[in-house]
Design brief:
This protein has 15 helices and 14 strands. It is of the alpha/beta class and 401 residues long. The protein folds into three domains: 7-174, Rossmann fold (3-Layer(aba) Sandwich); 189-271, Rossmann fold; 279-387, Rossmann fold. A six-stranded mixed β-sheet has the order 2-3-1-4-5-6, sandwiched between helices. Helix 12 (313-326) runs parallel beside helix 14.
Length: 401
């Protein structure tokens, strides 16, 4: 089950600490598997190691084992930077402390975690060999930092650590996530408009469409799925108006013209903007499109990499529509994957994908980083609705303003 859960709905738990603090051993003890290589030689873990796991009763999570924060040399610096990048997708951190106690490296990472608003549990490891000093215990207690004493070698305290992780999980992972459950009720009809083009995966729907349809079923509502050319016929054969029409953003202008004004209309991407981020903030970010100037650079962000297709949505269609809307000469740079570019300030606007392959914490952190660095951010669907002139209608159902 845990291996099949979408990456974007997993809680990410990252183990950080010095070299040879026992991070890899603890990960193996937590998962009950030999996930990471364990050796007495410091710096055994180089690139971050991930492991999917079912942390009951919480559900699917991903553990990351990272390189030591006190690594040295040019290669060591790259390993540390790689470990820090993992923090941008982290929901909770375990700071592993060994016999060296809480010193400079631990203070530095604690400062970073607090700046990023990442919950942290201090784990005093190697309890079979050492006991934490009273000064370290006092440090944790005075700063209200949760801590546990464990031994990855003997397994002592590992179950308590799992229980602590479940109890300390961010609220969104304890609550059942809802995409449209608050917008519909039992017996309602939801009409989904799903174009099938070159970008559509062969033999299946894309993840946002699948998740929305599942949420419709979980709400005991009825879901009807059609392609855009069948929309008019579907509206005619329904005995009553659908409670909600949800369309792919790429055909939102055509769908908005066919769906009567009194029927609520939104897009899959807008639903995901709320589900994975801050919808109000992303809508406000779209207003920056009106202020773009000749020569401005636009960052196109995608959370996952995929093979380019003809008329690709992020590489071709949105740049074309935004350029037509603004009438400006603009530069577009695509940035795929989890990492956010270091030169963020060079951009006048960031336009992000729907984020179906990332969790809400990472999306909110990306939004917060853009805000701190003065860069407006919106998402694909909202940007499309903005330049197509239908954004007000698309967000009306959410009663934001």
């Amino acid at each position: 089950m845990s291996n099949k859960a979408p990456r974007g709905v997993r809680m990410v738990i990252t183990l950080v600490g010095r070299r040879n603090a026992g991070k890899s051993s603890l990960l193996n003890a937590l998962t009950g598997q030999e996930v990471s290589i364990v050796a007495d030689h410091p710096g055994t873990t180089t690139d971050p190691v991930s492991k999917h796991y079912e942390l009951l009763p919480l559900g699917p999570v991903t553990f990351y084992d990272t390189a030591g924060l006190d690594d040295t040399g040019q290669l060591g610096e790259k390993r540390i930077e790689s470990a820090r990048r993992i923090l941008y997708r982290t929901d909770m951190a375990l700071l592993i402390v060994d016999e060296n106690g809480i010193g400079g490296p631990e203070h530095e990472i604690l400062h970073t975690l607090q700046e990023m608003h990442i919950q942290v549990i201090i784990v005093f490891n190697k309890a079979d060999m050492f006991s934490p000093s009273q000064s370290d215990i006092s440090f944790c207690e005075s700063r209200l930092l949760p801590y546990l004493i464990v031994s990855a070698f003997s397994g002592s305290g590992v179950k308590c650590l799992k229980d602590k992780l479940v109890a300390s999980a961010p609220r969104e992972f304890k609550e059942e996530p809802v995409l449209i459950g608050d917008l519909i009720t039992e017996g309602d009809t939801v009409l989904c408009v799903v174009p099938v083009d070159l970008a559509a995966p062969k033999g299946r729907l894309i993840l946002p469409q699948v998740q929305v349809l599942r949420d419709v079923l979980d709400s005991d509502a009825m879901g009807l799925t059609v392609k855009e050319r069948e929309l008019g016929e579907a509206l005619e054969i329904l005995k009553t108006d659908p409670k909600l029409v949800i369309t792919d953003s790429q055909v939102v202008l055509k769908v908005a013209a066919e769906v009567p004004e009194h029927i609520p209309l939104t897009t899959f991407s807008t639903l995901f903007a709320r589900f994975k981020g801050d919808l109000r903030g992303l809508v406000q970010g779209a207003e920056a499109i009106d202020n773009l100037k000749d020569g401005d650079k636009i960052l196109m962000c995608e959370a996952c990499s995929h093979h380019d297709v003809a008329d690709d949505i992020g590489r071709v269609k949105i740049p074309r529509w935004v350029t037509q809307y603004t009438g400006k000469s603009l530069e577009y740079n695509m940035y795929s994957g989890h990492d956010f570019p270091d030169n963020l300030e060079d951009y006048a606007l960031a336009i992000h994908c729907g984020g179906c392959m990332m969790n809400r914490t990472e999306m909110l952190r990306r939004m917060r980083e853009c805000s701190m660095r003065g860069v407006p951010i919106t998402n694909y669907g909202i940007a499309i609705s903005k330049v197509q002139g239908v954004l007000d209608r698309i967000i009306k159902v959410f009663k934001l303003f």
